[in-house]
Design goal:
The complex is a heterotrimer. Chain A is mostly helical. Chain A is built from 31 helices and 8 strands. In chain A, the strands form 4 sheets. Chain A has a two-stranded antiparallel sheet with strand order 1-4. In chain A, strands 2-3 form a two-stranded antiparallel sheet. In chain A, strands 5-6 form a two-stranded antiparallel sheet. In chain C, α1 runs antiparallel to α2 and α2 runs antiparallel to α3. Classes of the chains: A mainly alpha, B mainly alpha, C mainly alpha. Chains A and C meet through α31 of A and α1 of C.
């Protein structure tokens, strides 16, 4: 039976093939051919994603685990006495994956197409498209994997692609090229700090659960939802779950799980068999699953993935034990971690915090956010694809994926909320102080990612993913729009350069410093680039959260979640809710403000440079994706319309939540926040107010005020002086976070490294210690051995013997006269003596 | 035919090559010299593959055993024997294949080495390489302490001459330092070997292990003294450890390494990093763990601590280097710190990860030295400041270099990651180490990015700094260079994506070794407790008699 | 025929030997010393021959022949040496030859 879901490995292999083609034959294909291959690969993956989506909706969102091609026989497998490692290459198709697939491949395809126009003048286009496809492949590994480690492959892979693409123009002459390389390196290293967190989380997870798989094959993430979808009667615990995450609900759930355990403990092996036959049955009858198959109670906990195990362990009472595996081992809350024994909740909290560190690295959260603004050194499509729409959202995806763990660690969740809130505000403030068109968007991205993380911190997993999806669309639009603007200004600059040469000597000097990304060089582009202007406006409105645009719905859902947290009765949750609510509202205000500031500086007023006044509209390759994304920015919000707006006649309510429910156990339709008019009005009011404030500050040609000393001019906020000036100055210095890191980490790291390498290791250990201590010590010992010992004692003895012999022979040599006669007499005497000796006995004996 | 014959065949094939080389006329047939050496190393490689193919993964004990009595002497009332005893188990199998894999690469990269053209004496050079291969294979195969020691020392000689004759400016200093440093450690080991042989009555490793298994407190009870003192065992353990630690090198015994690496010719560096250093870590597994299981457990936190310090220290120092080769050399200290951490995690995950990491380090760091060598052939400098824009000048080479650099950095999907990951995972679960070892060890993963990327950016990116006297052929890769890089790339991807075969090979041996260490340690503890109780009882009786005497 | 007794032979031999020995010890001329040595050898020969006859054993006579042969060789070598010494030193006085002095 042809199963659509078996196609999922293709989403990795197709971009890989595209990348290989472009890597080796890109130059032969030409820029168009190269672009077609890459875009074709991207579009194919998008089609597969759509097919997977249709498959999933047709099957009640029942997740499928897919093993890749047969020659991949697992990945890391280690035979061990206990905790044998088996980490396979394995794909998982569930609703969360499919959402990510659609976002990544959808936006990705458009950006690939856009790139054909954008990169056409760069000789390295083959490499560029190869990188883009490779990135796509890694990103799809990230979202489709069924375990944390394979996810980590994608995670690191996109990191490397990010490194390569940020540094794509490392070969620009002089300092600029070097800065590009530095930006790439910075991104990679900060991501590595995040990876440290992921690795630690994986280690802890493995030694706690014995696996790093999300959910094993046949396992169900959200039992109640699946049972309901399949039309079975719901068990009692599912009824109570609808009330949210109150303490009583949890208790009931815990109790029921216990019961289930008790029942199934004895029938473990039988259950396994049953499960095996169940799978065959599925193959025969399509996807009509029995009630048992939609319930994890068929498995022993040790046969489950990380999340289901965590759920069971977290629900245990102190000292309580449950049957763990088919061998009859019991397991309680205690986790044995090397020499430590920890409570499961502590471990889960640690895991979540480490995951948060990883997410902070990849999703540019506080305190690891400093790489993202620098990452704008890459080509603009890259910024749009990786540093706005897809790669940076991987951290959010990871956290949402780990929702079960996060729910089990409220303290960690609170910290997540704080990190998100701080990041959202940080990005919002810093964006106000930027001149570079892409930097503004970069900080905006940071801020929006903060929104998503904060949403996770207040339990709004769907809201986070919803915002992720809408943000991917409108932020990609904004970046591509900014790319179009930059492209236009650059062309305008070339135009000026070609036709304006010689007319204005001053211009020549100006050219060297001309930065096509600096908003102070723009202005009035709405007339020169109308399509870009209109689409950019759509994106800007969506980002600012103006009603009916996409961002409004998703942002509002996050705020609603934070608001609901206030009434849960749990202090920590309420505190998190109120902080998030307040901060995000403030950040939303900033969002609208800096976006309108940008609109004023780029599109309105008069052109402030000759380049801007000659900027042409971009080519079709670039404009078409803009239009598609602009339409998306308006309508994509309607996928998850909340109840209470009165739109139920037009759109199905909570469609998105409904879809995601199968993969996020803790959410329910009932739990999904309704529309809160008050909140919506306040948020909209803030946004509109901020836009008007920005208009009054920057509008009517007041965008920048030039001073004699400063050719490029200064911001009106700076001109206001006092507190405002200080704040703006801080914002333009990215709130001094980079400087802080430079002073606190980078500089000491380099100095200590230098000290260790040159002073300690080389001068002291290698030279001094080796030469003085070892070498000289050796010499000293040698000298002692040589002088007193060797010469005095050993030599003395030997020489003494010699001297003695010498003296003795000196005495005895006198005998040797040299006269033969003397010797003859001696012989004669000898003979006489011998004769006497021979004869004497005869006489002595008598006879 | 005896299956053990294959082991002997693999071991002595390089020696046959050595013999053949002697009869090649070096004046007339310089080309023939190269090809004979290459041919024999490749044939050895294929035979070692055959060995691997015939290896039974399920059998944890020695396989392909061949044993001939060599010497048998009477000392006092004990009969002491030492045999020619070769055999392969899961832990040495991979290292044998690694050795025979690296060797043709080392020979092939020497084909066009300018230093050989300058200084000549090709015959000696290739003979020494084959001699070195023989000695290294011997170290990994021999199961007898005395014969092992002979092979262990023999490895020094060819390497000494390789560095001393074909090295860079300070080659003699580096060669002498390398020789003396490692030799002084080995002397301690020799003393320990003699003591062990005397105490056990044999130098044959499996026989000694059987005795240790029977009584893990064996070393403390020699000469009939049933004492609870742990001094003798610790001293013996220490003597072996220092010999191996210098070879690895474990911080703080590493100061010979940068000299040796920087001064050695490319092939020398590749083999030094690729195989020779593994002899130290292999020795830790084979001798320290097997002969002194209880002591290994006792010293595990200390040695793993040194490993962790090495990880961070090596990486940090590596970051601050201006000399490419030195940077790579120090990165070895960092990588081998991981291996030491893995070994002394004393569980299957750690041990298997460590063994795989030995192979990985041989491939990645060997690869990095190849890269440096290829660059050196063109730029004739090792200073990072003299390089720039290599990626632009040599695009293909830049791409290959990137993969090798990333593999050294531990990118998932490439080989380095699999080893590091399993090692660190093992260290979390180790019942002898606590969590901080892992925490600090994992920081090494971050630091690896700092120095590798620094190297990559400074050498491969930035403004073009063309090679001196460059013509159109300068930036083309010679076929020998491609021929050495492609197998390296292949190995990087193979181990990165499908390391299953490797883990399977060592699985059962590692499992058995771990179980053996654990059991021995328990037995040792019991024995020590018994002895202490006994001596306490003795003291009491003595006191009692004294009291009654009063 | 009256046979002469063994004592007479021994006495003559002794006398001859003593004369030879004295010659060796007292004379300075190398040739004379040489002749004295010959005298001592022949004294020995005489004694050997006498004892041989006395005991009816031919060993003594065989020995005598050996000695005569060796003596002949000795004379040849000895005289050659003396000639060589004379050529070198212009003297055959043995007192001049004391380079072997310790």
């Amino acid at each position: 039976m042809l199963n659509l879901v078996q196609m999922v490995p293709l989403v990795v292999f197709i971009p890989a093939i595209g990348a290989i083609i472009n890597l080796f034959w890109g130059a032969k294909l030409g820029v168009k051919g190269s672009g077609y291959v890459a875009s074709g690969a991207a579009i194919l993956t998008f089609i597969i994603s759509v097919l997977l989506y249709s498959y999933l909706t047709a099957n009640h969102g029942i997740a499928q685990v897919v093993d890749p091609l047969p020659f991949f026989d697992g990945w890391i497998r280690i035979d061990a006495v206990d905790f044998a490692v088996h980490i396979p290459w394995q794909f998982r198709v569930d609703s969360l994956t499919v959402v990510m697939l659609l976002v990544v491949t959808g936006v990705g395809s458009l950006i690939h197409i856009y790139s054909i126009g954008y990169i056409s003048h760069d000789p390295k286009y083959g490499l560029f498209f190869a990188y883009l496809n490779m990135f796509l492949g890694f990103m799809l590994i990230l979202v489709t994997s069924n375990n944390f480690l394979m996810m980590f492959v994608g995670w690191e892979g996109v990191g490397v692609m990010s490194f390569l693409l940020i540094g794509f123009w490392w070969d620009k002459k002089g300092e600029i090229g070097w800065q590009n390389g530095n930006a790439a390196r910075k991104a990679m290293i900060l991501n590595r700090i995040g990876d440290f967190g992921i690795l630690m989380a994986i280690f802890l997870m493995f030694w706690t659960f014995g696996t790093v798989t999300y959910y094993d094959a046949g396992e169900v993430a959200n039992t109640c939802f699946q049972l309901e979808g399949a039309g079975y009667t719901l068990p009692t615990e599912c009824e109570s779950e609808g009330h949210g995450e109150e303490a009583s609900g949890e208790e009931t759930e815990a109790a029921s799980v216990e019961e289930g355990e008790a029942e199934h403990a004895e029938t473990g092996s039988a259950a396994e068999e049953e499960h095996a036959t169940g799978e065959e049955g599925e193959a025969e009858h399509g996807l009509v699953l029995s009630e048992e198959e939609l319930d994890n109670s068929l498995f022993y906990p040790s046969q489950l993935g990380v999340f289901a195990q965590a759920e069971r362990l977290l629900n245990l009472e102190d000292g309580e034990e449950i049957a763990w595996d088919a061998d009859g081992n019991m397991r309680g809350r205690d986790v044995q971690l090397g020499t430590w024994t920890l409570d499961i909740k502590t471990v889960v909290t640690m895991i979540v915090l480490f995951l948060l560190l990883g997410a902070a690295g990849k999703s540019a959260q506080f305190p690891l956010l400093v790489w993202l603004p620098d990452a704008m050194a890459g080509p603009t499509p890259v910024s749009a694809l990786m540093h706005a729409a897809t790669m940076v959202t991987a951290g959010v995806y990871l956290l949402v994926r780990s929702n079960v763990l996060i729910d089990g660690a409220p303290e960690a969740q609170f910290i997540i909320a704080m990190v998100g809130a701080i990041t959202a505000l940080f990005g919002g403030i810093a964006a106000v102080g930027q001149w570079d068109i892409k930097r503004v968007l970069a900080f905006s991205t940071i801020s929006q990612l903060g929104f998503m993380v904060a949403a996770i911190g207040v339990g709004g997993y769907v809201a986070a993913i919803f915002h992720l999806a809408t943000h991917a669309v409108f932020k990609a639009l904004l970046f591509l729009g900014s790319g179009s603007v930059i492209h236009g200004v650059e062309h305008g600059q070339h135009h000026v350069h070609e036709y304006g040469r010689g007319h204005d000597a001053d211009d020549e000097h100006h050219d060297d410093e001309f930065d096509p990304q600096d908003m102070r060089n723009m202005g009035g582009l709405s007339r020169r680039m109308p399509v870009t202007y209109i689409t950019y406006l759509m994106g800007m409105l969506a980002l600012s959260g103006i009603p009916i645009f996409a961002g409004f719905w998703s942002k509002d859902e996050i705020l609603a979640h934070a608001y609901e947290r206030l009434s849960t009765g749990n202090t920590l949750e309420s505190l998190g809710g109120i902080i998030v609510l307040a901060t995000l509202l403030l950040a939303a205000g900033f969002t609208a403000f800096y976006m309108w500031r940008q609109m004023e500086m780029v599109f309105f007023g008069k052109a402030r440079s000759k380049a801007a006044s000659h900027a042409p509209e971009s080519v079709g390759w670039m404009v078409i994706p803009l239009l598609i994304l602009a339409i998306g920015s308006i309508f994509v919000g309607f996928i998850n319309v909340p109840s209470g707006v009165g739109l139920s006649w037009l759109f199905p309510l909570h469609n998105f939540t409904n879809f995601l429910e199968s993969s996020i156990p803790s959410i329910t339709i009932e739990g999904a926040g309704g529309f809160i008019w008050l909140l919506a009005i306040v948020a909209t009011g803030l946004a509109v107010g901020a836009i008007f404030l920005a208009r009054s500050l920057y509008g009517h040609g007041k965008a920048i005020v030039a001073h004699d000393s400063d050719a490029l001019g200064v911001d009106p906020l700076w001109n206001m002086g006092g507190m405002t000036r200080m704040l703006w100055s801080a914002a333009s210095h990215r709130l001094y976070l980079d400087d802080l890191y430079h002073a606190v980490f980078l500089y000491p790291y380099e100095r200590i490294g230098y000290f260790l390498a040159v002073v300690l290791d080389w001068r002291f250990f290698h030279d001094y210690f080796h030469n003085n201590v070892i070498h000289r010590g050796f010499n000293a010992i040698g000298t002692i051995l040589k002088n007193p010992v060797d010469i005095g004692l050993i030599d003395g003895t030997v020489n003494g013997v010699g001297k003695l012999i010498n003296w003795f022979s000196g005495r005895t040599r006198r005998i040797q006269t040299g006269f033969v006669r003397t010797y003859a007499i001696a012989i004669l005497f000898g003979v006489v003596v011998v004769i006497i000796l021979m004869v004497a006995p005869v006489f002595m004996n008598g006879s | 035919m005896d299956s053990g014959f294959l082991t002997t065949l693999v071991l002595f094939l390089p020696m046959v090559g050595f013999g053949v080389l002697l009869f090649v006329d070096s004046e007339k047939n310089k080309e023939a010299l190269k090809w004979v050496a290459l041919g024999f190393s490749i044939v050895t490689f294929f035979f070692s593959l055959a060995l691997w193919a015939g290896f039974d993964n399920a059998n944890p004990d020695l396989q392909f055993v061949q044993q001939w009595n060599w010497l048998s002497i009477q000392i006092g009332s004990t009969q002491i024997s030492s045999d020619y005893y070769v055999g392969v188990d899961g832990l040495s199998m991979l290292l044998i294949v690694l050795t025979t894999f690296i060797m043709p690469i080392g020979i092939l990269i020497s084909f066009n080495a300018s230093v050989l053209k300058e200084r000549g004496r090709e015959k000696l050079y290739y003979s020494l390489l084959l001699l070195l291969e023989w000695a290294m294979l011997g170290v990994f195969m021999i199961q007898d302490l005395i014969v092992f020691y002979v092979f262990w020392e023999v490895t020094l000689v060819p390497m000494y001459f390789l560095i001393g004759i074909w090295g860079s400016e300070e080659r003699v200093y580096a060669a002498v330092k390398f020789f003396l440093y490692t030799m002084s450690g080995s002397i301690l080991m020799l003393i320990a070997i003699l003591f062990v042989g005397n105490a056990a009555g044999t130098f044959i490793l499996p026989d000694i292990i059987a005795q240790v298994q029977a009584n893990p407190n064996l070393w403390n009870e020699t000469a009939g003294m049933a004492s609870s003192s742990t001094v003798t065992g610790s001293l013996l353990f220490g003597a072996f450890f220092i010999a191996f630690a210098i070879k690895v090198p474990i911080f703080p015994f590493h100061s010979w390494l940068p000299d040796a690496h920087v001064q050695a010719p490319t092939a020398g560096s590749v083999i030094l990093a690729g195989v020779l250093l593994k002899m130290g870590t292999y020795g830790l597994v084979r001798f320290n763990l097997q002969l002194f299981p209880a002591e290994s457990v006792q010293f595990a936190p200390l040695i793993a601590g040194l490993g962790v310090v090495g990880i961070i220290y090596g990486a940090w120092v590596s970051y601050a280097q201006d000399n490419v080769k030195k940077l790579v050399a120090y990165s070895s200290v960092s990588h081998l710190g991981f291996v030491v951490l893995g070994i002394f995690a004393l569980n299957s995950q750690g041990l298997q990860g460590a063994t795989l990491q030995m192979v990985n380090h041989g491939i990645s760091t060997g690869g990095l030295f190849l890269l440096v060598g290829i660059l050196y052939e063109r730029w004739h400098t090792k200073e990072m400041a003299d390089y720039g824009g290599v990626w632009k000048l040599m695009p293909l080479f830049g791409g290959i270099s990137l993969v090798i650099a990333l593999s050294s950095m531990g990118l998932p999907g490439l080989n380095g990651f699999v080893g590091e990951f399993t090692i660190l995972m093992g260290s979390v679960g180790s019942v002898y180490l606590n969590f901080f070892f892992t925490l600090l060890g994992t920081i090494g993963v971050i630091l690896a990015a700092t120095y590798i990327l620094k190297m990559y950016q400074h050498v491969y990116m930035g403004d073009n700094k063309p090679a001196p006297h460059a013509d159109e052929n300068t930036y083309k890769l010679h076929w020998t260079e491609l021929a050495v890089l492609i197998p390296i790339l292949f190995a990087i991807f193979w181990i990165g994506i499908q390391p299953g075969k490797f883990f399977d090979t060592m699985g059962s041996s590692a499992k058995q070794l771990v179980a053996y260490v654990d059991e021995s340690y328990d037995a040792y503890e019991t024995r020590q407790a018994d002895l202490e109780a006994e001596s306490a009882a003795q003291v009491e009786t003595n006191d009692a008699t004294e009291d009654s005497g009063d | 025929m009256t046979s002469v007794g063994i004592e007479a032979f021994v006495a003559l031999s002794m006398i001859l030997f003593i004369i030879g020995a004295m010659g060796v010890l007292l004379r300075r001329n190398a040739i004379i010393i040489f002749m004295s040595v010959e005298l001592m050898l022949n004294a020995t020969n005489l004694a050997l021959a006498a004892f041989s006859r006395q005991w009816g054993n031919l060993d003594g006579q065989i020995f005598t022949f050996f000695i005569i042969t060796v003596a002949a060789a000795e004379v040849a070598v000895g005289l050659a040496l003396i000639v060589a010494i004379f050529r070198n030193k212009q003297s055959i006085n043995v007192d001049d030859l004391h380079q072997m002095e310790g």
